[in-house]
Structure formats: structure tokens, C-alpha cells
Amino acid sequence: MNIFSRRQSAVIEPTPTVATAVAEAALDPALRALTGRWTIDRPHSRIGFSVRHAMVTTVRGAFTDYDSTLYFDGARPSESRAELVIRVASVDTGVEQRDAHLVGRDFFDVRRYPEMLFRSTSTVHKGGETFCMTGDLTIRGVTRPVDLQLDYLGSVMDPFGYERAGFDGTTTIDRTEWGLVYNQRLKAGGTMVSEKVRLQFDISAVRSTS
User: Fold this and answer.
1) CA-CA distance, 116 to 64, in Å (whole number)?
2) How many CB atoms are closer than 10 A to CB 177?
3) CB neighbours (10 Å) of residue 132?
């Protein structure tokens, strides 16, 4: 996802560990060239999720209204930051009745909790073009840490003169840990909606010129 940056006051930075220094030195020079501020290009990105339904099928959906802030440091990935604010009422699973249920009190309760927030707390280069971004995910007023696997897909200058970078981010959460506990039991055993939800961030980021 965008590797986002918020304005920060000056801080005294710790001395990097030997392992961190070695990992950062091994980074592809192309990644180093990406250092800077970026934003998510919504028409070419997807902030989505998938969840098992009735134990046998998968329902997929996405959030279409959100704001992003991103700072990616290709030389020192540990300095990368991301923030994503999602308007939960924008959820879209392709079924109007299901979407209405999701925004109601059984699930997101958007009247009380209109926004979902992800704010990164650390980023680690795992090798190659894969990173682990840890951050705080807030849903329904509950904040818990999550680890996001973030894969860099490449960068390009598009025909309109915009520099683009692609990232895929994934993580799986237990929705009940954020108070999303609604369910129905099946006669044959199991539940109507899985507690495990896979979050998917298919990101086309555009370099900010400001």
C-alpha cells in the first residue's frame, strides 16, 4: 500500500543495527530511487477483503472511499510510513442488501464508527522486494496491531507523465478481535460467516509533486 508519511517533529534517531544496515545496503538501486511521498490512485487500486460464507464459498468486497498518506524510503525502509483512512459506508460487495447489513449495527455500525484507520508503526525489509509493515488497525473504536506483507511490483513512467509504483499488501485478521462478532450457526456445523478475514491492498501509487 502506499507507504505513507505524516508530518513529524524532529527526533533523535537510534543507531541502526548491523542486520538492518546490511539489509538496507542490499536493496535494489531502483527501490532507492522511489524515496519520496506518494498517494494511492483510486481508479487503479483496490482496498479489499474476502471472507468465507457458509463454509463453502468466498465473498469479496472493497472500500471505495478513502484517504491515503505515504512516504516510502527506498534507502532506509525502516523510515517508511503509511496511513489509510477508510469511510466504511463505501463498502461494496456487489449486493445492495448485504452492503446494508454490513454498515448496520451487526457489523461496522457506521453511524457510531464511520471510519476505519490503518497507521503504520514500523517497516522491515524482509529481502528482495518484500517488506513487513506493522501498524495499528482501528475498527469500531478498537485498535489492534497487524502485520502486513507488502510486495513491491515495480515502477514506471506512464504516458501522462506520472511516476507510478505498484504494491500488493495482504494480511489476515480475526474480525471478532475488533468487535465484529455477529454470526449464525449452520445446522450441519460451522458458521455462516468466517471469523477470519483476508485484507488485500492492490496499490497503484503516484508520486506526489507537492
Assistant:
1) 12
2) 14
3) 15
What number of residues does the chain have?
210
Run of H or E including 97:
helix 96-103
List, as one string, the DSSP characters of 147-181. Answer: EEEEEEEEEEE-TTS-EEEEEEEEEEEEGGGGT--
Greatest alpha-carbon pair distance for the chain in Å reads 59
Span 57-112, pLDDT tens digits: 999 999 999 999 899 998 899 999 999 999 999 999 999 999 999 999 999 999 99
Model-level pTM?
Answer: 0.83
- How far is residue 118's CA from residue 146's CA, in Å, rounded to a whole number? 9
Q: How many CB atoms lie within 10 A of CB 77?
A: 24
Cell of 30: 531502483
Alpha carbon 63 to its chain centroid, in Å, reads 11
Strand partners, 52: 58
Query: What gap in Å lies between CA 2 and CA 150, rounded to an integer?
Result: 10
Is 74 in a helix, a strand, or coil?
Answer: coil
Residue 172, pLDDT above cutoff 60: yes
Instruction: Report which residue type is found at 75.
Output: A
Do 90 and 110 touch, CB atoms closer than 8 A?
Answer: no
Nearest to 79 by CA among 155, 28, 131: 131
Residues 137-166 pLDDT 10s: 999 999 999 999 999 999 999 999 999 999
What span, in angstroms and rounded, lies between the C-alpha atoms of 90 and 42? 13
